[in-house]
Specification:
With about 750 residues, this protein is of the alpha/beta class. About 55% of the residues lie in helices and about 10% in strands. The chain contains 25 helices and eleven strands. The chain has a nine-stranded mixed β-sheet with strand order 4-3-5-2-6-1-7-8-9, sandwiched between helices. Strands 10-11 form a two-stranded antiparallel ribbon. Helix 12 (about 330-345) links the parallel strand 7 and strand 8 (about 350-355). Helix 21 runs antiparallel to helix 24 (about 650-685). Its main location: nucleus. Keywords: Coiled coil, GTP-binding, Hydrolase, Nucleotide-binding, Nucleus. Nuclear GTPase found in germinal center B-cells, where it may inhibit function of the activation-induced cytidine deaminase AICDA. Reduces somatic hypermutation in B-cells which may enhance genome stability.
Length: about 750
Amino acid sequence: MAETEDFLVRELHPEDDDIFKEPMRKRRRSDRDQRFRAFPSVEQSALKEYEKLESRTRRVLSNTYQKLIQSVFLDDNIPNSIKYLINRLLALIEKPSLDPIYIGLFGSTGAGKSSLINAIIRQAMFLPVSGESICTSCIVQVSSGCCEQYEAKIHLLSDQEWKEELKNLTTLLHRTEGPGGEEEDAWDRGDAAEEAVWKLQMFYGNGAEGKSYEELLRAKPRGKIPTSRVISLKAEEAGELSVKLDPYIRTQRRDWDGGSAETHIWPLIKLVEVTLPKSELIPEGVVLVDIPGTGDFNSKRDEMWKKTIDKCSVIWVISDIERISGGRAHEDLLNESMKACQRGFCRDLALVVTKSDKLHLPEYLRERKVGNEAIQSQREAVLERNEMIKLQRNKILKDKLKRKLPADSRVLEASELVYTVSAQEYWQQAVLTEEETEIPKLREYIRRRLLDKKKRTVTKYVTEAFGLLLLTDSFSCIDHMQRSRGNQGFHQTLKAVCLKNGIYASRTLARIDLNEAITQPIYEQIDPIFGRIFRSGKPTDGSALIPHIDAFKLSLQEKMTEIGIRNGWKYDSYKNTFLIQEISAILGGLEEHILRKKRKIYESLTTSVQNDLKPCYEEAAQITGKKACERMKDVLRRGVDRQVAEGMFERAQERMQHQFQQLKNGITEKVKGSIATMLTLASSPGDGLYKELADVKSEYKEMEKLHRSLREVAENAVLRRGMQNFLLRMSPSKAGPPKT
């Protein structure tokens, strides 16, 4: 009895009062309909059918789970096979309906990320916009939900995180006199130092930059800091919330000494989450992420910056049309995005060219080299130029992706990788129509990704549930039968780099990472190999991991079928179906496990080099006085040379190999335990498996119908889409040229 109680407490959470109630209640029909408002009627119908399938499947699983729990609740010594069944049911019941799709808008200062989000959600000036200057100061996430109001949560650095930043800021600003009594190199305010002064003055007031770390710890901040470190805002209207949000999101001017409490705590802000009411434009389940700059000086914010990029399944590289060619910042952003495809969850990447209405017509006509037809208007010139840019940049981007990513990567199959948009023209329509601004095309892009993910998720969910119910019902039946910037201020920037162990992230300058620069030649060699190891699809050289797991899955399923035939399972089709389905579920779950480990393996080289060079960085960071910059560089050069001679790269290689070995061992252990228990369950003879189990015949019958419905839903979606396309082709063109 004690064992039973312990199992139920650990595995089944009976402490909840609603343990025998359905774990996830079905939403009201009106709520469900509201969530699909962003989709056209054809897609709404498909989504509703998938939602209905999922909801009914979850209810069937919940009923089965309740029956099994009630049948074993007071019994001792529950066999592992029954525990396995119950835990698998519970895991499927509590499985999230759909993980959010994070779409990262990744661009440099003034590229128009906030303006683009405002246009997509059709809320002009909702996020702060300010021409060419830095406007958005932190990561901002925008999504729609089931709330009735506009809501926002501002997340602040914890007390410990701020103390860490404060120590780094004061160390960076620390000035001493050299041995000869001279102040160190005419200290000019480089980017790093200016930002440090600015933050301290904003948080503590004028004069804070001259105080020590200990003095500032005792100083009282100018603004009130909530103990929860979270500020919640609500408003009935978008404009009202925008006004409240502005001081938290907008980068504060360095020459401004405002007095509002919001601006005083601005240096503490690390993330802002904005939730819109049910939207006709952005479907629930999609999160637009405005990712500013190239990182942050604070290590926690910088880590969040990297993690935010890595969790995005879609990345839009945002670039101003005037900076698209030859810009260093643009190339850096593209490279960082392609790294996210290597190390993170990113599966789709697109280049979004903003401000595409900008064009000086006389200059364009003078340089125009394409076509013989005369350009009649500004609109025609803009559309022609934009089409040329899309063709050129699409080819360039695809070629770069082919060099970096496996040949079967999904992003390489996309016909469109480049979009030319204009948020300004979306509102004004002085030159372009709404369709020609391509804002609607980006909304369609978002809907397509969500619909595709919903379809794949529900199909996998229903198929897994059917295999599990099939086996559960078969055991129940058996039991019943048998019983019944340059050198200016460079030393300050270098000091900041050393303080952060080789990394300096600024909102205005390009990201500096000495560790990455040192390992870049190695990455250039291993990127193709790394891509092949973690590629999907058919293996070509035997090195791909996922295809090997798929091949192992097929081999194991075939072996199970052979064993089943030898053991007389041909009359027990439920066992074969269960084994095949459960093997798919177990091995399919490995892909997410591998993706989570992939980033750690990929970054192990730079992490190893950073750890080895840490003493050099710490030594260099302590240098002050005359010619500090030259002495810091000398310490770093000697430190790198010494570490290389002592085997720094060899150690990095060993650490990466160790990470791969850990992944290998983890895969083996994960598969071994699950499959062993599964085989025990499937191989159990009817007699002696357990006492009489609950009758789940009705649940099995309903699950069988739901499984058959999957094909009908897919076929209906195809028919509706075909009919919609036919009607669109037959209808006359709806958009005429706007005024010129």
